[in-house]
Amino acid sequence: MTETRPPNRGIRSTGASTPQVRPATEGWTQKKDADGKPLLQFASPKRGKPPVHLADLSPEDRVAKVKDLGLPGFRAGQLEKHYFTHYTSDASKMSDLPADNREELVHGMLPPLLTEVKRLETDRGDTIKFLWKLHDGALVESVLMRYPGRITLCVSSQAGCGMNCPFCATGQAGLTRNMSAAEIVEQIVRANRLIADGGLGGKKSTDHSLDRVSNIVFMGMGEPLANYARVMQAIRVMTDKKHGLGMSARGITVSTVGLVPAINKLAAEEIPVTFALSLHAPDDTLRDELIPVNSKWKVDEALDAARAYFDKTGRRVSIEYALIKDMNDHAWRADLLAKKLNDRGRGWVHVNPIPLNPTPGSIWTASEVPVQNEFVRRLNEAGIPTTLRDTRGKEIDGACGQLVATEDDQADAEATPVSV
Ligand code: SF4
Predict the structure, then answer these.
(1) Where along this sequence does the record place binding of S-adenosyl-L-methionine (predicted)?
(2) CATH fold group of domain 147-391
(3) Which residue in 47, 137, 143, 249 is deepest, having the highest Cβ count within 10 Å?
């Protein structure tokens, strides 16, 4: 497919008055492979595995493990209820389990996984960012947000990330390791516990339904499709009505920078989650620099896979597009994006532009408001439903691409003993 206008190199005028800023890392050095391209890390570095938890296992394997611990299989169901309904791993609250081996059973099935290092609140208490320490000292974050009619948790799926996107705080540190399914699920259980205890502000007196997380977005640390098997196990647990959290698959958004074979695999699963493609540029010239994985799977391949996801599941796909001043926010890019989406049919996709968090003095800063509006207008006019997304959480660096442990976080984490 041809581009409507060739992108320029360097910071200079395109001739129509809009400058073109090229992506570059600021204040850090991007790791490169032997060919000088940004390094992509798909395999998780070898580290000690987290303890196996009930949420890592299928319902049958939970029963088998309880039996291995010397108890009848039905105890697995009781543990599931404590964990997924009452959000507790505290043996002292499980008086329905036999007192003599209760501690051993609970420790064997529900070992501690996340130690809270700190939490930051903003938006009058209805946005909370958690910093968690894993069993091996790796740090991850999640962000809990109350909106009218829903409570969303942005979860991490990897400690760090191997996709090396130059604008992303998480990517700078590289991939520490894949998280286990239970480490992913535990973020939700802990958030539900906090909500049940009244710890999330902003509840309106008319809002009776919301007493737990209703929506999940995989937009925290990590590329979820690079940790496919564990993310899928976590989603199975989230959606299982009998043996898990019983959430709606439609409320779960899996977001990817475009790992095409994994998108195809996801489409073949029988779980109709919402699928989001973080595109950020409609032309390969810019996207190769902005999203290094584009060197493996190009814009058109990623869009074809997104369209195939719609065909297979009937679920409308989201295109995420961070609007970055003078880098990817040009009117011709809005037109090109609209063309590429319309070339693949109507009614299968919507676009969510999100202004990048403002960083004065950096090349990585938010588009001007009139530019944002023009970008959105052009897409809508071309028949692509487009809505500018909320940047909730930006005051606490909790918006997408912002989740990374700082030096202060590291120091706080070192002072926090890991739960055992
Ligand atoms: S933007 Fe997403 S995929 Fe890219 S480095 Fe950051 S966390 Fe990884």
Answers:
(1) 222-223, 255, 278-280, 357
(2) TIM Barrel (3.20.20)
(3) 143
